[in-house]
Design a protein that fits this description.
Length: 55
């Protein structure tokens, strides 16, 4: 599901008594990974998640 419909799910979770959420980004760390793009995209996704959850 990802971020699709997250706002609605958060509203329902809140009604169900949930007070916090957690989202993880898994990155493989090697001498060539993650790429700068992967780091940026994951940071953007985490920021979007945080913004939606705080509404």
């Amino acid at each position: 599901e990802g971020l699709d419909g997250l706002s609605e799910r958060c509203a329902q979770y809140k009604k169900d008594g949930v007070d916090f959420g957690k989202w993880r980004a898994v990155l493989k760390i090697t001498s060539t990974t993650p790429s700068q793009l992967a780091i940026q995209e994951n940071a953007n996704t985490l920021a979007r998640y945080a913004s939606i959850c705080q509404q």
